[in-house]
């Protein structure tokens, strides 16, 4: 196993790098997009609420692979050329953002409505009350489920392998099929994923303790 | 302390999985495949499901169809008698060797070239078909031969030796490896790459169904296809080789070649006929 690791070191490391980059980009953008749609789902305006609901329900209920394939194969055919890494990261972002929207919405709903009413009666606008009163409390509630989403996101990034995104899984497939050391290769790939996901788990636990 | 316990638990479970798989391999490879197959009157073949003309699952009736399928049926009958059955399991370039190793299939007949690297891991029968690697491009493509692919993107299938070969002929080409041929072809169509590379016979099968795409230039390698057999199965290998010789001697082989490749543009079936 050590020999397999050292002789394919550069492939594993580049795969690890692409997986990490894709995860970070998708995490950042899905958190922003997801929070936006979560707020859209609770605004007083009915039309905006419907838009938020439709977005979440569509992308939460389509397999990640289908979304990714759509960006990899269909979009380049008609609109603009995008490579596998970008297509995979976009798919990952959209898919995860739908779940994050649901999580954050649950957090917003669990904040006592009296908080919002009190803020409004002090003369704050809806958005100001959201920004300064409701969201800070909501995020505290949703840290554990958000941590789950982030861990899932890293694991789901293996979808990049299906669209030649050069990630860990892609390199693992290539190495396994060249060396025929299937078991060892995937054990190493699994350990590399743990290197990313375990610190996230720990950090989230730490954050939870600190804020609770 | 709690953290340490957790890490120990993770490591032990990984080791457990690892050792379990290691045991599984040993017990299966020590069984005699030929004896088992004689008892059950069945040979389980790993075949392709996405390769037109060679091994393809017909979506209309769910049947495996192609040259390799027919050849496998003929070899099975020669090996075990007229009433023997050939059972087919779908494999991909990536999964075929692991499936053979863990005993899910008895033999691989799935466009697999005999290469020195593979011979370290598995055994091969005598070659049953001589293909050659080639490229497929759009009709109006500026690419005339494989060397033109330097600094361009070429699409292949993960686990096939064509992705490793093409680097020798176009060292500066960027290679994308996709999971199977159907997806590789779709990726070529949506412009993810400039050419698709694999064996000429597989490409010819694709070109039949996809007007606007053609094989370009001559085959730049020779790819003798062999039937993949697990190591430590000399009886089974001898039986396969004997059956293959008989199939060629009685003319069945050439009949099958004409049936599947007799009318394929860009592919001269006469070059692959055997006496």
Automatic annotation (TrEMBL), chain A:
It is a multi-pass membrane protein. The chain crosses the membrane at residues 20-40, 61-79, 186-204. One of its GO terms (molecular function) is transmembrane transporter activity. GO terms for cellular component: ATP-binding cassette (ABC) transporter complex. It is found in: Cell membrane. One of its GO terms (biological process) is amino acid transport. Keywords: Amino-acid transport, Cell membrane, Membrane, Transmembrane, Transmembrane helix, Transport. It comes from the Bacteria. Coiled coil: none annotated. It holds the Pfam family BPD_transp_1. Residues 16-204 form the ABC transmembrane type-1 domain. Belongs to the binding-protein-dependent transport system permease family. This is Glutamine transport system permease protein. It comes from Companilactobacillus mindensis DSM 14500. The lineage of its organism: Bacteria, Bacillati, Bacillota, Bacilli, Lactobacillales.
From TrEMBL, chain B:
Residues 53-263 form the Ionotropic glutamate receptor C-terminal domain. Residues 1-24 form the signal peptide. One of its GO terms (biological process) is amino acid transport. GO terms for molecular function: ligand-gated monoatomic ion channel activity. InterPro entries: Bact_solute-bind_prot3, Iontro_rcpt_C, Solute-binding_3/MltF_N. GO terms for cellular component: extracellular region; membrane; outer membrane-bounded periplasmic space. Keywords: Signal, Transport. Residues 42-264 form the Solute-binding protein family 3/N-terminal domain. This is Glutamine ABC transporter, substrate binding protein.
């Amino acid at each position: 196993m050590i020999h397999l690791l050292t002789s394919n070191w550069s492939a594993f490391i580049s795969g690890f790098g692409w997986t990490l980059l894709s995860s970070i980009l998708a995490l950042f953008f899905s958190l922003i997009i997801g929070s936006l749609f979560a707020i859209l789902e609770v605004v007083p305006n009915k039309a905006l609420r419907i838009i938020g609901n439709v977005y979440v329900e569509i992308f939460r209920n389509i397999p990640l692979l289908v979304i990714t394939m759509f960006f990899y194969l269909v979009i380049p055919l008609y609109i603009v050329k995008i490579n596998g890494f970008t297509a995979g990261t976009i798919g990952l972002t959209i898919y995860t953002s739908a779940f994050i929207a649901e999580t954050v919405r649950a957090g917003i709903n669990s904040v006592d409505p009296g908080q919002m009413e009190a803020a409004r009666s002090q003369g704050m606008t809806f958005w100001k009350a959201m920004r300064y009163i409701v969201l800070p409390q909501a995020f505290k509630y949703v840290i554990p489920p958000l941590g789950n989403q982030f861990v899932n996101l890293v694991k789901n990034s293996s979808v990049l392998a299906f669209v030649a995104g050069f990630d860990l899984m892609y390199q693992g497939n290539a190495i396994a099929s060249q060396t025929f050391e299937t078991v060892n290769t995937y054990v190493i790939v699994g350990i590399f994923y743990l290197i990313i996901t375990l610190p996230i788990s720990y950090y989230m636990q730490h954050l939870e303790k600190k804020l609770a | 302390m709690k953290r340490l316990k957790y890490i120990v638990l993770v490591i032990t479970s990984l080791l457990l999985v690892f050792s379990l798989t290691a045991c599984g391999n040993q017990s299966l490879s020590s069984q005699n495949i030929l004896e088992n197959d004689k008892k059950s009157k069945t040979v389980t073949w790993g075949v392709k499901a996405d390769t037109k003309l060679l091994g393809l699952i017909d979506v209309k009736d769910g049947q495996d169809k192609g040259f390799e399928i027919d050849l496998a049926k003929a070899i099975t009958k020669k090996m075990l008698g007229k009433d023997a059955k050939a059972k087919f399991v779908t494999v991909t370039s990536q999964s075929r060797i692991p499936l053979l190793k863990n005993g899910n299939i008895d033999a691989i007949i799935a466009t697999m070239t005999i290469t020195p690297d593979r011979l370290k891991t598995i055994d091969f029968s005598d070659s049953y078909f001589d293909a050659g690697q080639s490229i497929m491009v759009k009709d109006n493509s500026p690419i005339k031969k494989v060397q033109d692919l330097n600094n361009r993107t070429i699409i292949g299938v993960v686990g096939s030796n064509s992705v490793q070969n093409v680097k020798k002929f176009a060292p500066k080409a960027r290679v994308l490896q996709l999971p199977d041929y159907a997806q590789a072809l779709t990726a070529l169509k949506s412009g993810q790459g400039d050419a698709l590379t694999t064996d000429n016979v597989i490409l010819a099968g694709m070109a039949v169904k996809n007007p606007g795409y053609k094989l370009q230039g001559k085959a730049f390698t020779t790819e003798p296809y062999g039937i993949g057999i697990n190591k430590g199965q000399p009886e089974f290998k001898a039986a396969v080789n004997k059956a293959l010789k008989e199939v060629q001697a009685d003319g069945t082989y050439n009949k099958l070649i004409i049936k599947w490749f007799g009318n394929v543009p860009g592919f001269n079936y006469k070059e692959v006929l055997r006496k």
